[in-house]
Design brief:
By secondary structure, the chain is of the alpha+beta class. It has five helices and ten strands. It has one domain.
Length: 265
């Protein structure tokens, strides 16, 4: 996860190659009230983990039959209560626990993300987004709160709107099938990388698989990072982009698509 003005971290691992249909870029004018509403309605969350054996792939299933590996199913169409604890995870210290892509918490926040895309309401999707409290602990930059609010949440709002536009006029009839997480690509980002003061796990290019008008389609989650053993979206449409600009959809595809490795932080 890079702060404003950071230089991309170089890796000996191969960079992500273009795949699938060309990336869809849609422009949206984001009113200041959208970001303000997202921050006002935001409920803090958090995560972290220790190196653990990596599985080949995990998925969370929502509605309808699935062609991916089995997992718990949910038909919830509105956000569930975010937490039963008195302190949000983002207010607690990081851990080194590898996140699960089959946990109840992961299913819940991915359902929130999907519902936010379907409704074009970033506030509904915010439980899936990396918590502010965690970002304040993580980032060694002059004003991490403003960077989180203006840059990260602002870009997230644009990308939610872009994904909603991808669904088109039949958005409310689209059904989430699975969120496939390529855990074989999850890697630990060490402290000091990309202006981060503490470490975390990062996984690129999970796939949101859905059915619309009888067809299976998908798009990516550019980057998720961990806080206290949970995955959170930090970049939905793209990791690197202009500070202000259009919303993006990560590799939209016909069919479930194929996650690809990319070296990000």
């Amino acid at each position: 996860m890079r702060a404003e003005g950071e230089r991309p971290r170089r890796s000996s691992r191969p960079a992500r190659q273009p795949r699938g249909p060309a990336r869809l870029v849609l422009r949206f004018a984001l009113a200041g009230s959208v970001i303000a509403a997202a921050v006002a309605l935001y409920v803090a969350y958090g995560v972290r983990r220790s190196p653990a054996p990596r599985a080949a792939s995990s998925s969370v299933h929502q509605q309808g039959p699935s062609t991916t590996t089995a997992g718990p199913s949910t038909t919830r169409t509105s956000p569930a209560p975010s937490t039963t604890t008195t302190a949000g995870p983002g207010t607690l210290p990081q851990t080194t626990v590898m996140p699960s892509a089959t946990s109840r918490q992961f299913h819940s926040v991915m359902a929130d993300l999907w519902n936010g895309v379907v409704r074009d309401q970033v506030s509904v999707a915010m439980p899936a987004f990396f918590p502010l409290g965690a970002y304040l602990q993580l980032k060694a930059i002059p004003d991490p709160q403003e960077d989180w609010r203006a840059r990260l949440v602002g870009q997230f709002a644009l990308d939610v709107a872009a994904a909603h536009a991808l669904l088109g006029t039949q958005a409310t009839k689209a059904a989430l099938i699975a969120v496939d997480v390529p855990t074989q690509y999850a890697h630990w980002v060490t402290p000091g990388t990309c202006y981060n003061s503490i470490g975390y796990y990062e996984v690129p290019n999970a796939r949101i698989v859905y059915r619309i008008n009888g067809a299976i389609r998908s798009f990516g989650i550019a980057s998720m990072i961990s806080w206290r053993g949970q995955w959170y979206v930090v970049h939905l449409g793209a990791v690197l982009r202009a500070t202000t600009g259009p919303g993006e959809v990560d590799d939209p595809a016909t069919g479930p698509g194929t996650p690809a490795y990319s070296s990000t932080c």
